[in-house]
Design a protein that fits this description.
By secondary structure, the protein is mainly alpha-helical. It contains two helices and no strands.
Length: 87
């Protein structure tokens, strides 16, 4: 057992080899791509939430108008909303 240990410990200098650099670069590339993916996913998730919130608000107004027209109740209790396109 001591022979096997000494066989692998022959190299005693602490010089970083090309293989070590390659492993380090690969590790950093994996971490970097995961971070980029994560932040893109978060941004897309925020956009999707904003879209569905806006869609739901419009769908509620459409449903109210359809109910008003189908039930033939007048006047319809719908107040128009104005949205600021800059927000």
């Amino acid at each position: 057992m001591l022979f096997v240990y000494n066989k692998f410990m022959i190299k005693k200098n602490n010089v970083i080899t090309k293989r070590d650099w390659a492993i380090l670069v690969l590790f950093l590339a994996i971490i970097g791509t995961n971070l980029v993916w994560y932040y893109q996913y978060r941004q897309q998730d925020k956009l999707n939430n904003a879209y569905w919130t806006n869609f739901s608000a419009h769908q509620i107004e459409i449903n109210k108008l359809q109910a008003c027209l189908n039930e033939n109740t007048r006047p319809c209790e719908i107040t128009p909303t104005v949205q600021d396109i800059n927000n």
